[in-house]
Design goal:
292 residues; globular; alpha+beta; single chain; Rossmann fold; Tumour Suppressor Smad4
Length: 292
């Protein structure tokens, strides 16, 4: 089993769990590759039985590794998407943080999780991505997002007018602080905090959620994921901010945005003893009676 380890920063409290993971992988003759910037951060803090090979880009691991382990929280998985790209390499999230909707394996259960993966006791969930068709290459080669694309105002004073069309039909002019276009995966992220609904990962939908709408009757709307979404932004400022997951760019108001479904999906690995509904119950504390 060939594993790529991807991460960003780790705290001292995480080091023992990461060491446990490395020991488990290398003790079973697993070939381990480590993301180069991550290796530089953990070098001297993690002991490797065998010196790992390093990787930096998708081409370094495509056709080479069986799985990519994302070490961190959900934000780390979003960055990992840019590494695996359209390679089809399954991404496994080991949660070293707090909430972790996507990074579902807790650091306390690393050993049984690795054994389950080794035994093939897992399910691959295909997750839809958004693609920014226009403007092209605004985010370089990574003009796609697993969670959401977000338009938002550049400063605290300026409210935006965000005109939106679906397949050429005018939807609305949102007077708001911003607008989120989310995938089902992203429905449990920023959109959820803006009162958007939760959508199951296998639903073939996108979600459009306003941020702090000036018109209180405006609500989130669910559309088919084969729709073309066109967005034009107006406001007192000459620019607005545009993010795709964790990446942010400043965009001129004259620029029209065109958003579609990406032509590939990401494989997220889930252990068979977990499911989506169990995850949201646990993470959102559904069904708990907190009365004294």
């Amino acid at each position: 089993m060939k594993i790529a380890l991807f991460g960003k920063n780790v705290t001292e409290t995480v080091i023992p769990f990461l060491q446990e993971l490395v020991d488990e992988l290398q003790s079973n003759n697993g070939v381990t590759l480590v993301y180069k910037p991550f290796f530089e951060r953990i070098s001297g803090r993690i002991a490797f039985k065998h010196q790992p090979d390093l990787f930096s880009t998708q081409s370094d691991i495509e056709g080479v590794v069986d799985f990519l382990f994302s070490i961190g929280g959900d934000g780390t998985i979003l960055d990992a998407v840019g590494i695996v790209g359209n390679s089809g390499i399954p991404v496994t999230g080991i949660n070293m943080g707090r909430l972790g909707f996507l990074s579902s394996i807790s650091k306390e259960h690393i050993i049984p999780a690795v054994k389950a993966i080794r035994d093939g006791d897992y399910i691959l969930e295909k997750r839809t991505l958004l693609r920014l068709d226009s403007p092209e290459n605004l985010f370089g080669p990574h003009n796609y997002a697993l969670n959401e694309l977000t338009v938002f105002k550049p400063n605290v004073m300026a409210m935006l007018t965000i005109k939106t069309w679906i397949n050429g039909a005018f939807l609305n002019a949102y007077w708001a602080d911003g607008l989120i276009v989310a995938t089902p995966t992203g429905s449990t992220a920023y959109s959820l905090s803006c009162t958007g609904p939760i959508i199951t990962p296998d639903s073939e939908n996108f979600l459009i959620t306003p941020i702090a709408s000036h018109n209180l009757t405006v609500r989130p709307i669910v559309i088919r994921d084969d729709s073309e979404i066109t967005i034009r932004v107006e406001g007192k400022s000459a620019n607005f901010l545009l993010s795709m997951d964790s990446r942010i760019e400043t965009v001129d108001h004259a620029v029209e945005l065109v958003v579609r479904r990406a032509d590939f999906q990401i494989n997220l690995l889930r252990l068979t003893d977990k499911n989506f509904f169990q995850t949201i119950r646990e993470k959102l504390n559904w069904g708990l009676d907190n009365r004294n």
